[in-house]
Specification:
310 residues; 24% helix; 6-stranded mixed sheet; two-stranded parallel ribbon; 2 domains; binds zinc ion; single chain; alpha/beta; 7 helices; Collagenase (Catalytic Domain)
């Protein structure tokens, strides 16, 4: 017992050192049993989309059409699977297929069939004003976060369009940099909030119109930091294969970050334009798989009832 326990601690220390020093080669991953090479098998995660609207007819404004929602989930999967022929494809040697796929829930918490889309007319519901956060929207609907990834689409103030695209709560794990994620308090809801105008594809006059907001927020939900981390060249995003940068990465043009390296403009964990985003790196993928393996709630998602028909 004692030996096993101390061996476990040694492995955990080795793991932390690996994350801090990893050069992200295949060899280093293979010699570190605690971080698996991203799975040979695909991991499926269930989603529920709570469409929060103000009584608009179906398919109008925030009461998004089913077609637009389904296309958004397709984009999410193209990005996470680095699908050839899609915007999410890249040939970068640092880029990878996360082997994570998302599925609209097939059953409700009550065991009823669903298409994974839950429409809520807010004009019929009284809530307390808690702000633009998950806990506020959970008053309308909140499904067990160990069985579903809760995603709320909703209008955010018009003045923030093209700026505040969405947000996500992060998982609390022992990964370095976890403190920079938006960690929910004990009574807070967890999930992802997306301004409806940035959900799915549209022709709005804005850089965020190809559905990459959800890809970015899902990265946070699975434990990724922005590429600039805490805006510190030394303590960055804890992924050595994303060039270090100490400020926010916007726009479409790459620039030099720390150590004279060119920033990875296409990384999903930037604030860059939707039309240049196309890469998760091997280190980022390893981080997400670490979360799926070690965070109780995120791990339970992989075995959720929502993945199966009732
Ligand atoms: Zn972000």
């Amino acid at each position: 017992m004692g030996l096993l326990a101390s061996k476990k601690i040694q492995l955990q220390i080795a793991l932390c050192i690996w994350i801090l020093t990893s050069s992200c080669t295949k060899d280093s991953a293979m010699t570190t049993p605690e971080i698996p090479e991203p799975g040979e098998d695909i991991v499926f995660l269930p989603l529920v989309i709570h469409v929060v609207h103000s009584g608009e007819p179906l398919g109008t404004g925030p009461n998004l059409s089913l077609e637009r929602i389904v296309r958004q989930i397709e984009i999410l999967n193209e990005d996470f699977r680095r699908k050839e022929g899609s915007r999410g494809h890249n040939n970068d040697p640092d880029g990878g297929d996360t082997k994570i796929e998302f599925v609209l829930a097939k059953q409700t918490p009550e065991g009823k069939p669903t298409n994974g889309v839950n429409r809520i007319d807010t004009t019929q519901i009284k809530t307390r004003e808690l702000g633009y956060n998950q806990t506020h929207y959970a008053q309308y609907a909140y499904w067990n976060p160990s069985q579903y990834i809760n995603i709320w689409t909703t209008p955010l103030p018009e003045s923030t369009e093209c700026m505040v695209l969405g947000n996500a709560t992060g998982p609390k794990t022992d990964l370095p940099g976890t403190e920079h994620l938006a960690l929910p308090g004990p009574n807070d809801a967890e999930g992802i909030l997306v301004n409806w105008i940035h959900f799915g594809e549209s022709n709005i006059d804005c850089h965020a119109r190809y559905g990459r907001t959800l890809t970015h927020e899902m990265g946070h939900y699975l434990g990724l930091l922005h590429t600039w981390g805490a805006k510190d060249c030394a303590l960055n995003d804890y992924c050595d294969d994303t060039p270090a940068v100490d400020r926010e990465v916007f726009g479409r043009e790459a620039f030099k970050g720390c150590n004279g390296e060119t920033v990875m403009i296409g990384n999903y964990m930037n604030y860059t334009h939707d039309d240049v985003m196309n890469i998760f790196t091997h280190d980022q993928i390893a981080r997400m798989h670490y979360v799926l393996k070690n965070h109780t709630g995120r791990n339970a998602l992989t075995r959720s009832i929502a993945l199966k028909n009732p």
